[in-house]
């Protein structure tokens, strides 16, 4: 097990713990705020720094990953940092070839469309660990037994986390993350961006049991990966179920939920006290079910009402993160401030009290064509909201 107190003792003490307090239900000094892909292409300094560096090479170099993680802190008064990495480093660690193609996004060179495709992934992975002669039917069990060794392949992420937390010098907590098994399976089966979800749907309606085999392997590797991130210094974890919307409610409960819960149960057993957030993208029905899960907080998008969601979750001792529509940032800065104030007022009241168990965020990540000034306005407006009452 990972002792959080022992890990904390290796690093500078935390100055701004508003995010952690919000999650624990203690009152923060202000509404904490961060955004997904806060390190990214909308920042000219990001474009400049990454010009000659291939995407995954940035993730693999701890100095580069650390530099990029810290870039937004030169501009914004954010309350959390998220380690520069990607959810697709896990499929890579399983031996799958993934490329980031300009204008197209991630592309898998090794696709999983048949049983044989997946058996080959397992076989190659075991061979890499020096294990041969495992009967095909039980390769998955063998990998699960050795998931700690599989997670060794991601040592560059742990190094980046340790370095970044050291350089953060206690300014804000550092978030570690991974993609959820279902989302990783969607990428592995579709191979590239999809609007139709053809391949993953064919899989679940023809070979449901085999899909469970794949998801179980992925969940065990993800859990080890997250626990190692905590050991390396991550103070909070987020699990991204970015393709939750590929599944209708009943299938979401079968193919997504059990593995989200398995991950949280395993990680919390291994790292007692570690706060965990889950993001089920574009699946408003998931919120109610996740109220009864090991996660501390659910990250919601603009398809849900913030006030209602927050009341429902705080009633069961959990919180919400979100959910300002990302398109809000296409308004001019002054209008962004107005819209954010309006959004928070509608959810929490005009008085501007700081709600507990709430972290402000966008419904999804920053886009490359957003104006950095608009993110500044967003962050300022969130912080200003809670100050209303003190001023009067
Ligand atoms: O600042 C941060 O949020 C931390 C870093 C981070 C990245 N990706 C960096 C990145 C995080 C948390 C992610 C998670 C991630 N990656 C998700 C889950 C979040 C979500 O949006 O639902 C997903 C689905 C991915 C897979 C992925 N990686 C996509 C869809 C893309 C965009 C491709 C494109 O061309 O638009 C990426 C690339 C990526 N990951 C970028 C960044 C900064 C941009 C690519 C670049 O800089 O060249």
UniProtKB/TrEMBL annotation:
Pathway in which the depicted protein is active: Porphyrin-containing compound metabolism; protoporphyrin-IX biosynthesis; coproporphyrinogen-III from 5-aminolevulinate: step 4/4
- Cite a single GO MF annotation: uroporphyrinogen decarboxylase activity
Q: Which UniProt keywords apply?
A: Decarboxylase, Lyase, Porphyrin biosynthesis
**EC numbers for this chain:** 4.1.1.37
Q: Main EC class of this protein?
A: lyase
Does the entry feature the keyword Lyase, yes or no?
yes
Q: Does the keyword Lyase apply?
A: yes
Q: Which GO terms describe its biological process?
A: protoporphyrinogen IX biosynthetic process
Residue limits of the Uroporphyrinogen decarboxylase (URO-D) domain?
A: 32-41, 175-192
Gene Ontology terms: cellular component: cytosol
Q: Which InterPro entries match?
A: UROD/MetE-like_sf, Uroporphyrinogen_deCO2ase_HemE, Uroporphyrinogen_deCOase
What protein family is recorded? Belongs to the uroporphyrinogen decarboxylase family.
Protein name stated in the entry: uroporphyrinogen decarboxylase
